[in-house]
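Usage example:
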Amino acid sequence: MHFHQILLFIIHKINGQRSENAPYYLLKGKKSGQTIQDVTYFQLHAFFSILPQLLKEDYDAEVNKLFKSECIQLKNSLVYITEKGLEALPHDKEILFNGWQYRGREQLLWKRLDLVVQTLSQFHANEKKFVPNQKDIATQQFIRDFLIEHNFRQFNLNNDLKQEIVQLLENPSLNDLHRTLFVYRLSGYNKTGLTWEQLARYFQLTDMNTKIIFLECLHNMLDNISSERSPLLFNLAKDIHIDTPLTDSAFKTSQLFEKGYTMDEIAKIRKLKINTIEDHVIEIVSSNKKFPVSAFISKEQEEEILHLSTELQTKKLTLIKNRLPDVSYFQVRLALTKGEQNHG
Amino acid sequence: MDKLSGILQTRFGHTTFRAGQQEIIEQILDKKDVIAILPTGMGKSLLYQLPAYLMEGTVIIVSPLLSLMQDQVEQLKILGEKRVIAINSFLSFQEREIAIRHLANYKFIFTSPEMLQNEQFNLALRNLSIAYIVADEAHCISQWGFDFRPDYLRISNWLQSMKAVNVLALTATATGEVVEDIKKTLRMKTPFEYIHSLDRPAIAYETVEVENQQQKLKWILGRVTSSEGPGIIYTQSRKKTETYAALLREQGISVGFYHAKMEQGDRILIQQQFQQGQLEWICATNAFGMGIHKDNIRQIIHDHIPSSVAGYMQEVGRAARDGEQAIASLLYTTTDVEQTFYVAMQDFPEEQDIQIAYQPAYSEVEQAETTTRILAYWKERLSEQATIELFKEIKQKKWQDIQKFYTMLRNDTCLRQQLLQYFDQVLLEKPSYCCSKCKLDLAGILRKRTVENKFEENKNWKDRLNILLPSKYI
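Running the assembly step on the lines above writes:
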């Protein structure tokens, strides 16, 4: 997928309900209540936090291109996709990102793979003195332990690791562009990997799209790593998959809920505003549909809100809230979040 | 075989010392303070590495350039030394905690001047038995040095707080004035001074005055397509590194670009590609070169007047490490001197910045990071007026320096001789390929380009993976 396609896809989902900046915060992985709740409302988990380094100027430039080519338009500060935009949507492309799950931690796998391949390649050539591409101590220590644990002096490790990489790269969801970018980023004895600019030039892509396609590949590989079929990579992917994809603060709040505290008590204990705790509840519900919400909303209210949302074909809080004066904004958000969970 | 040569051979794999090395090492072992000035690539690192193996205790190396520190740690590890660590801002808080708690496990501890103010670190250091302290890139101590780091001046008080221990000051370039500053700051009484000639006879110098920027480009294209590298083209802007590279690539040259705005991973890859010969030429800003270990660089081209003679010597000094003939070419126009001054002054605090810095409310005013750091240092020591005067003086001196360099380039006197004179050294013997003012036979230096123009091969991921990890073919 290319950058503009990602933007079109997201804008299609939030069509007419958010401003043109909402995709930016989503891609950056902003940990605000609004962004996190949007992830669930609009089923955009795949894209959350996939471009944490994205600069606003680069984002604006791409959005402006979409405005210029009339793929999107603005009405009352809300962004809409046009007929032309709908046609340009990447219909045939599978979404390979899994941003909600990895949130940038996929880079850990990359760093480790880069270093382990470089090291094994150097050792195979009997050139044990080399400058490692990866400089951080944690990665170096991790790979040192990994190599010792797997008895790396044996020839097999080289081959086993290669087989595992190939098996993952041959996943039919990936294409040769993914595979080539991935392998040519790696370095080994007398073969240094290529920079983004070098790869982009070869494939006539922008640097940005090169990085995006590489990221798709990395996410897809991580999704398919299993302890049975790719035991080595499974070990290299340690600490990347986590059970609760909650922000630290939301996690603390959820622990207090588990101990039986009420929302008000938690706000007091944590010295946080009630709004913040509400944001946390939305985040917790986003990632755990079994989280009990009966303390905040009745079953009837929940159904009423969802019904209205379908009827009005909107997820705009104000529109729904105006028709149901007895419910709070928080309850509308909660119901919509729950609702998406049940559908998705 | 004596002890020194034994270690030289077993640890470092050399059979003989280079000029000066043995003398200096003997002084260190004798517990004397030492100042050593050696041109880049003359085996400076060995001076602080080798004595460590003949002495009890840890060696502390203070180095102001973080990227260089990283490289030095790697080089020691490559030599098989595992007891080495860099304690600096690259470490996470937790990593630093752990490292400081286990300080005694290390034989070599690299650190930055900024870290010397860390209480916890100092406490741990004081409990350590220290063999000697190394002040690397010592010219950065002097405000007259081209790369002045005010935080480095704090080393003076820090040394006083350490138990009596001798100091080794290392630098590649220092004028007499700078040497005096180093001695004073490092509290050296009667140090052993070793000053190696900064002359690099294998490097010929060439200056070319052209009319305009367009002609520089034409010259560079002509030179690079007709003669062999490997080489570096230094330019002043990031944009230009990319433009040059693109134009040369069109001519089939294998070339890359390098500047500080690229992400770290990519900078490492470009450096490696050049080192391993996958790239023949690099178009770079002055960010490139530190920690480059490549012996066979044949050409260095500057498309501008560098902002200091010392900086120029360092960049040029990356050529001909193998002792084979190389050439350094400098292209300039008559208006370049203003541009160079402008670039040199970019991060330099103006009177206005100083006034702001001395206001009581000054805390997070937006100023360049280096400016903030420099001013924070002087604010503790000088009045506002004195600081303003000081910076006026430094600025004036900088302008004179650049003018002086410009005159050196344009007059009729031998350039090699003038460059040495600048560092208060005398040229003893002129090599046969000296400089363009002494009549240079270019045909004898430049090797006619025989390298086949490279066009990129097709990329096949399976083939590549098999090359990286040879074993059963997939």
